[in-house]
Amino acid sequence: MLSRLTIGSRYIIMVITGALIRKARKDRGMSQIQLAEGICTQATISSIENQNVCTSVDILVKICRKLDLKITDVAKNQRYGDKIFSYIEDDMRNHLYAEANRQINQIDTKKLETRYMLGRYHCYRGFIELYINDDIHEAIFHFNLQLTQYSADKFTFYQA
To answer: Is the separation of the CB atoms in 147 and 156 below 8 Å?
Structure first.
């Protein structure tokens, strides 16, 4: 089932797999009430687990943290590249640049549908060129593409 999640004032459509959340919760011996504590209501946990519905990405992130799950394992965006980009972001945050490089090499740039997605690709590619290949010129090339050709809006500079 598709859920419309709120991020700030924007909505995104994601597929949520509530069964994975239920399994992780039960594996940890937690009740729905225990999982909901400090995050949301028990009814919200029930909706997530049984109807695959969650209206807030913040709630989903907190639940995943409490259960030690990656949000990308329980919620999938329908756009090509989103899941692999989230893995790349995790790898880069954890300084696993070789793994990020392996992941980014799997992306078919022809399938990236928006300027924002192409910008993300070039931003991550720039970091990989810098940290893996130690090629400052290639890194600058990709960062320049991200900032000048594929910026989605005036805030893209800050995303980079």
So the answer is: yes
